Amino acid sequence: LVEYERTEYGPKPVGIKVEEEVTSAILNVTSSSRVIYFLVGNGEYRVLQDAPGGEEEYTFKTLRSYLEKANFTLRELNLSVTKDIPSDAGGIVIIAPRRIIPVETQEKLYEFYKNGGGIAVFLEPVLGNVTYDRTFSINYLLTKFGLYVKNNVVFDEERFNPYMGKLFYIIPYVHFSPITSDIKSKGLPVQLVTAMAISRMESVNEELGTRVYDLMSTSANSWGETSIDTRGKLLASKDKNDIIPPIILGYAVESLITNNNKSGRLVVIGDIDFLSDYFIESMSGNLELALNSIEWISKENISLSIKPKSIKRSPIILSQADANLVLVVSLVVVPLLMLLPGIIVWIVRSKKVK
């Protein structure tokens, strides 16, 4: 019931999992399993199968483990092979398709939403030599919700992680929403890496009969860099072609029109790094965001799955302005305060001598 991490000095306890294990056992006994399908066949990153020889740059074993403990049954779905979406689908997850998703498949996904289904889309910018902008691969579906994406990487001069030292390691502002409210109220930091801006069309969502929530955003000192060469090199300089603030990094969409008392749900987040084994537990909010997103589209009560209580020391994330302030205080103000009594004594004694 204690989670350990291997170090060069031996096992080190990093988390307490009593509530998590007990809750998982209760869910297995008292509730039926919900089925989550991961879309495949269009170059999506696969959660249920590991690439041979570690060929994939991302792995998702931790995410898979937590979903299974939350009593989800996980399966893959290839809509180029399977004619229809299975009737037992509690939600569909799409992780960064690297080929264009056929329009017929996107139409099936939209019908699934209209019938009360839930879809989670996690995207990643295109870096490297490709013959097309694969971010358009899902735009046919997204435009039906008044959203769209184009290839970009978000840089933030204020909300970047100073410990990483790069402007695309972003600690975004978290907004109140059905998915992120507990993350915001607990003050849990979320870190996104090479994230994408998700754009929204103007004045269409009321017509579409949807309620739209902003999940995360950047500071006013940010931009979506669109100048990415074929070698994947980022040319981080603001110009007229870049996406300007306000930049939203994720949306949740809920239908106001119910079908058999079910309302369709969609989550779109412009990053998959936070889902991966390398980053999902690097910040306490990453795991919450991943699980809450999938639980919400599946209509599960988000409070049902309890994450392990970490006993790691959580780093304090400061903005660049705050970090500069701490530096000035520690190197200038504190030494001056320590010298001040000596200066006062010297002045007093100088006056007495006179």
Describe this structure as you would to a colleague.
The structure is a single chain. By secondary structure, the protein is α/β, with parallel strands linked by helices. The chain has two domains: 2-316, Class I glutamine amidotransferase (GATase) domain (Rossmann fold), CATH 3.40.50.880; 318-354, no CATH class. 27% of the residues lie in helices and 24% in strands. The protein is built from eight helices and 17 strands. It has helices spanning 18-30, 61-69, 103-114, 139-142, 181-186, 205-208, 284-297, 320-353; strands at 2-7, 10-16, 34-39, 72-77, 89-95, 118-122, 147-148, 153-156, 169-170, 173-174, 192-193, 199-200, 210-217, 222-225, 248-259, 262-269, 309-310. The strands form five sheets. Strands 4-3-5-6-16-15-13-10 form an eight-stranded mixed β-sheet, with helices on both faces. Strand 1 (2-7) and strand 2 form a beta hairpin. The longest helix is centred in the C-terminal third of the chain and has 34 residues, at 320-353. The N and C termini lie far apart (74 Å). Residues 20-30 have low confidence and may be disordered.
Index terms:
354 residues, alpha/beta, Rossmann fold, 2 domains, eight-stranded mixed sheet, three-stranded antiparallel sheet, 8 helices, elongated
